[in-house]
Amino acid sequence: MVASPHQALTRLIGPGRTLLTEPGHVMLHASRPGWDVHSLETRGTLSGGGTVHVLAGGVFPDSVISAVDAGVDHAWITSSLLNLLIDEDIDCLAGLRTIFTGGEKLSAPHVAKFLERHPHTTLINGYGPVESCVFATTHTVTSADLDDIPIGRPVSGTTIALVTQGDVPADLLGGQPGDTGEIWLGGTGPATGYVNAPDSDDRFVTAGPEGQRWYRTGDQAWLAPDGSYRFRGRLDRQVKIRGARVQPEELEAQATSILGVSCRAEPVPGRWSGYDRPALFIGPGITTSPTEVRQALASALPKHLVPDVVVCVPTLPVTANGKVDSHTLLEALASSGEAQPCRS
Q1: pTM (two decimals)
Q2: Which CATH superfamily, name and number, covers 2-234?
Q3: Phi, psi of 33 (to 5 degrees)
Q4: Who's near 245: CB < 8 A, 6+ residues apart?
Q5: Would you say residue 344 has pLDDT above 70?
Q6: Range(s) for CATH 3.30.300.30 in the chain?
Q7: What is the Cβ-side half-sphere exposure of residue 52, based on CA atoms within 13 angstroms?
Q8: Strand, helix or coil at 26?
Q9: Whole-angstrom Cα distance, residue 82 to residue 110?
Q10: How far is the C-alpha of 218 from the C-alpha of 227, rounded, in Å?
Q11: What whole-number distance in Å separates Cα of residue 279 and Cα of residue 274?
């Protein structure tokens, strides 16, 4: 959990800023209170005189249609959920004036289908880890973006530096077109730290000529000639699945501790973009069934870290460099269908 100052949200609100709401605008509210998007949906709307429409159940086509009928014209919908709504009933999104999306890389085929069907709806791709409170960059998506959808430009009160791994320039320049590096976020958006987890604060650093405070995201970006940033992956193995951060190493450590055998956690790529589920591959030496493994992990891990599928393999394959061969494991999963019970 992060502690964000009030200015991290207020930097987004007001004329010419990301969250410009006014009387007559109605925002859909469906997020959990502990999520930073909750601030977008509630305080970001109410402070501008807009109205919040609380969704009682989940975000499904029928519930979106009912919300629009009740006056909702703005909504935050994570990219994976947006893909699902487009697949299930793209017309349920009719009537929305603005959709904020993000959380994971956007699917170009879904975006293309959406833009063609709803040309008068503004689709805003927002990038920003929770440590930067809702958004660090935004971009209004058009059909011209489909080859490489930008995460956009910095929002108000936010500065960006692209830093080559291991290199911390004294001046921390924002970068030149064509540069690729780790995204460092500065300005008034970064959190003050992590609640009850001071050992994790090493991602917040002080650097630059004026001793500015920065958050090291671990994300990589490329600065395009037009001044927009394009996401280029992670420096570590962290991914987002269904809008939640998944650290494969955390799942591996817990599984190894419980099972006492070597294992490997792999995010399974989605059909169009991003990842759709975590998978756990277990090496030889265990007789526990996949169902029992999942039950044991469910009692020790947050829900989003519990693997959707558990597969036992004769050995964990390695590359020529001696590292676990993720590609081979995922190929085996794709060809195996449903995971089979473990055998001794």
Answers
A1: 0.78
A2: ANL, N-terminal domain (3.40.50.12780)
A3: -60, -30
A4: 238, 239, 304
A5: no
A6: 239-336
A7: 18
A8: strand
A9: 8
A10: 21
A11: 14
